[in-house]
Amino acid sequence: MKLSVLSQSVLVACCVAPAFGVLADTISLTGKDLTIEQLLKVQNGVASITVSQQGKQNIQNSFDLLMDSARQGTPVYGLTVGVGKNKDTEVFGKDGKMSDEAVKLSEDFNRDMLFTHSAASGEPIEQSVVRMAMTIRLNQIATGHVGVQPDVARLYEEFVNKNIIPVVPSDGSVGLSDILLASHIGAAMMGEHEVFYKGERMPAGKALKAAGVKPLVPFGKDGLSILSNNALSTAQLVHAMGQAEQLIEFSPKLIAAGLESINGNISPILPHTLDARPMPHVQEVGNDILTNLEGGYLFQRDEKRPLQDALSFRGAHWPVANAISQYNSLEELVHIQINSSDDNPTVYLNAKHSRFNKYPQVEQYFTDGKVSGAINSSANFDTIQLATTTEAFSIAMAQLGKYSSNRQIKMIDPYFTGLPRALVNPDDTNGQSFYTLQNGFTALFVDIAHASNPVSFYGQANQGGIEDNFSNFHQASKNLTTVVNGVSYIYAFELMTYGQALDLQKKVHNRDLSDANKTLLKDLRKTVDFYADDTRTFTIDIEASQKFLMKY
Length: 552
Description:
single chain; mainly alpha; Fumarase C, Chain B, domain 1; Fumarase C, Chain A, domain 2; three-stranded antiparallel β-sheet; 21 helices; 52% helix; Fumarase/histidase_N
């Protein structure tokens, strides 16, 4: 069962510390074909980045178009006039001439905008996520729809490749651009604020000097373009998706282990059963589970086997199929997002005239010259589709945790397992074994249930009533991260429980496991031993089990 193009090597890399030095892979950013797989390589320090020749030309042309438009006296948000409540305040004169005074005024305006918008709070966003965000933003700039100086692109590329990571607080975005968060990246590019560099948190100016990086002098609409985008939220989402995919891929293996742990009935996942209601992906999930059970005792007739198991076992394939569907929907949107511009204004090279160009209101946005195109005020930063689809995926992942928790509740009861109470080793007559572990995964289930609640409705109008909408995309992405992490640990509890049960099925009933479950159990026992008695803590094994399944 494969969800997308992500490779197993990338999934493994998601769980290890970044490694920098000589990188074998260099990703060329074209503005149109960046993938989640490539982003995860950048996140984990196994790839560097560069801008393609066409991307560089797009960047130069879009900047030239922007400046030509200003010279012609066309009002441009964030360039010739201010932003937000100051959208009607002139920065350049109406004639758009680039006098020394106008250039200095623009530089000061851009610098001050990055300072005044750096107003977030909370612990720093994970460095690997910020690295991905800068890569996303550079690829968006390479589309030619942004209009920054080429020097801005240089700073993004050098920051990523030299592992200079701005300290970006985690709280402060309402989801229609990460304005208060991304401003810290711009401040760091100017040599202000702080960064992480060579394992140390230090002033940005000190790091840039040590790395031989010339600071940015922002101009034009550089400041607005650096702060007004959703790259940080998108990077946080991609990080969570990379972890979620591994959990979805592991789910059929876990369900197969669970069915052999309880002498379960395979009837609900047989091909003809599922053909009666052929919902998306359910056949492939059912087939995956059956493949992991082949060669085992569940295919042998057993008159004592229950006709129907508890629903969390009998229908375990349904939430996995749903998670695949939701993942694929989200992946489609993410691919669009990372390969397009969410800027306001939108700079569009060689914009095609339409029938609406006959109207003066429309024609004013077009510029013809050495570089032709259009510059339009837009709301392309609105992320409501991404936010609500992320929320749908969060719910789908949380359902995996719910089903897992319900399955585990059954595992201490001999009625369901046919094994000793709480999976106690029969040789340990006074043992408690897995009896109290249920508090651990129940607490996690409460966490993921809370984090999977939608947040895209909440907010309040600000900026004098101009900013009167919100999607909370960044919060939705953080919530998904919480859900995915919680499910990984709920699965860790479940895997440990099944490991014990499978050993007991062999020991108590002399049952022959499937080849896949024999291999899984053998591999698990290299890090988590059978619980022969109650003489060791579970906590270390829970951590080991989580790391095991995230790499398996």
